[in-house]
Write a structure and sequence with these properties.
Blueprint (H helix, E strand, L loop, with lengths): L1 E4 L5 E5 L1 E4 L15 E4 L18 E5 L6 E5 L21 E4 L21 E7 L8 H4 L5 E8 L11 E8 L12 E8 L9 E9 L10 E2 L3 H4 L9 E3 L12 E7 L18 E10 L2 E5 L5 E2 L8 H4 L9
Antiparallel strand pairs: 1-2, 3-4, 5-6, 7-8, 8-9, 9-15, 10-11, 10-16, 11-12, 13-17, 14-15, 16-17, 16-18
Length: about 325
Amino acid sequence: MTIAIEWDGTVTWWRTDSYWNPADYVIASSWGPGAVLSTHIHSNKDNTTITAANHGKSYVFALADGSGIQMSHLTGGSTLVVAPTGNTSAGTGANALTASPASFLNTSPNRVDQNYCSSTNLLLEGLADTSALASTVTAYSDGYKATVSMALDWIQAGAQGGWRGVCMVYYTSKYIQDDTNGAVCMTAVQSTGTGMNSDLSGVYLIHVPAATWQPPAMTGSVAPSSLALTDAKYGIVSTPSATKYVFTGGYYASTAWYQPKYASSYADIARFGKDRYTGAYCMQGSGASSYFSAPAAGVQLLSAVTLAAGAMALGSAILAM
């Protein structure tokens, strides 16, 4: 039970609650994705959320860096918070890039503050007909499309406006990484609003030059908004747009773009294709800095469908590469 008492003994705020993990049989840390907040009936008497519409809006939790606890309270009132109804479907890509941990420990390297990973996947698909694409896209791409999807989860990135994402680095072969073209990253950025860091400000596809960050560096001066790709030739579609209360479990973000035509080298971002390999790196940051971790070795990529017949005449293989 948490109680706030004034100097004269007046009780100004109280709450009775507990954290529990259904998978555990002993008292455990409140850190980790399995923790559940159990609201006690007596918490309904919380001084500033007396109405039934506002029960269960007070929180006490451990900070990710182990420095202490934080007590938060959503403002009382009669207005109900309505959960978003969209973006609840996971990505359908056959390429698992990164996976979110199932549990955390209080020892390195498995502490919650050392985790930058959310579950992500990559869908590669070639269009059967590119005639509907804008000329700016077809001049650059043969219709080979990439879509990165990420499971959203509530995070403390060190400040409001933090982000979580995944970066892909090109491989010339199974064991040889080529970071000449830098990294292509998908990021979801928190808003600086009042939703306890659960508001989303936007989803970005960014290009990180090798001079800015390259493996195995664990940090880099990377901010999504300053490195976001905006050229019409990519045909970028990102979802969701700015949305309140969506940066939490049960929701997903994605970004899709058209890749460059197959070539021996690339002028800007590289092409990720069937049977090729990519290095996938978890990414998290705030302010002007991002932090990276590599959860796995190179991932061999799979495509979903073949390219259009017209694209094959341009030198592409029968299956997208």
